[in-house]
Description:
The chain is α+β, with helices and mostly antiparallel strands and 174 residues long.
Amino acid sequence: MTYTLDFGTPVNTALLIYILYSVQQIVFPSTSTPKTIPSEFKHGYSWMPKEHPPTVLFKTYTPKTLEPFNGKDGGRILLAINGIVFDVTAGRNFYGPGTSACLVNGMYGNFAGRDASRGMAKQSFELEMLTAVDQPLDKLQDLQPDEIENMKGWIEHFSNKYIICGKLVENDAA
């Protein structure tokens, strides 16, 4: 059995040249070093960010200490679900206060700085879903099993998308 090398078709020739070039790059890699260290790519990419994001510490919050983190005046936006506090500042369009008279809040703006457990469980953005900050935390005992599963789905979603930055406890526990 004899093998013949056929350069008769352009595809075979191109593949052979590509294979030889790839082998040459692997066997004899480039050893040249750049004369200067690159500092920027085209279109202004910089190696160092202009400013680093603030450090987020895990803290214990109460409804009263969580309330100021509602995103007003450009501040951080935190919300809690079932005792877990999430920093949702990156989702300011959804959770932050509005910027015009026609848009009072983002879609979930009522939940900024608050315990959103009941609202997330019931898929409701109404103010009645929120417990007053000077009241005990909502125990969620009257939720149906499907609502509890819905709340757990939101916790999983938020855990994958946002930073967990604390836990929510009763006002007198902190």
